[in-house]
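Worked problem 6 (solution included).
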Amino acid sequence: MIPGIPPETRPRLISRFHPGSGQGHYKATSYYEVQRSLALQHLGLRYKTKSTCKPTPFCPIIRIQPLNPLFSNPNTPNMSFPPWTSTTRHDTYPAISPTNPALSSKGKVILITGGGSGIGAATAISFAKSGARAVIITGRTEKSLAASAAAIKALGLGCEARYFVADVEDAPRIEAIFSAVSVECGKIDVVVSNAGYLPDHSLLKDARLEDWWRAFQVNTLGGFTVLQAFLRHASREGTFITIASALAHLYFPGFSSYGASKLAAVKLVQDAQGEWPERRFFSVQPGLIDTETSSKSNVPGEDTVDLPAGLSVWLASPEADFLKGRMLWANWDVEELKSKEEEIVDGDLLKIVLKGWP
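Solution. The predicted structure is:
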């Protein structure tokens, strides 16, 4: 028996076979079948592929080391949740590929906040590959923004690439950027609100107030600033995508500020859809991805940046109309989601609600 892993998941997830002093060796039946990273989070551990023991194809062996003690909190719930689609995606695939003709962004103007690196930079590239007329990125670091814009131009696809140094909390600056883009490039067709902040993880009683509140300043206030500018300057049937987090609807100790601030951002998306039914609003859990921001969480990544990037291109297409106002995970297979359209729409699923009411 391994402390920290719920009884119903212990036997099939992971089994300890060699105790150590502060470290140990474990073996898992399958990396992806048992959602290895989630299992290891329960243990408060991080996986490493190197091992002093020889792995087999059917029972790979992983060496692990202690991680943040918060991850072994006894109150941590069972994170071995079932996927919402039978297929779980970790990388881009044909249905969301930016080169899929059905998802063409030809002639569209795209604006992405936090576009200098990670998910934002990959999303900018994906829209350029999809045929966008112009991709505009914003962020706080000019060097990374310039590199991202240069990468778009290097594709040689004729996509105009521009960048603006800006903080999403600076409402006048964001408004000025949206106004300038709409005048010089035309109405904005797609906005991906990707800029975000992850505070140091700590329990509520130990959190530093300034750092805890910073998540709301960036993720909620900043997200609202971008949303409001979109409403004022986007095309009549424009698409707004906010990069959210599973922590908006799941509990995990030490991330109260991040989860609550992302929950507020998701609720804003639902409210915006209600006020502007002709437009398209979505919230996305991007996956477990190694980025500069997520590195603070110490949670190992197992998804590529191309996964949420491709999903954003798909969401900007008519194929995703039935998901308007909803939150989805990038790991869910979109073909399966399409097959569940009636269930999702009739059941008003994939929205933040008070469970059990009405």
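Discussion: Confidence is low (pLDDT under 50) at residues 1-74.
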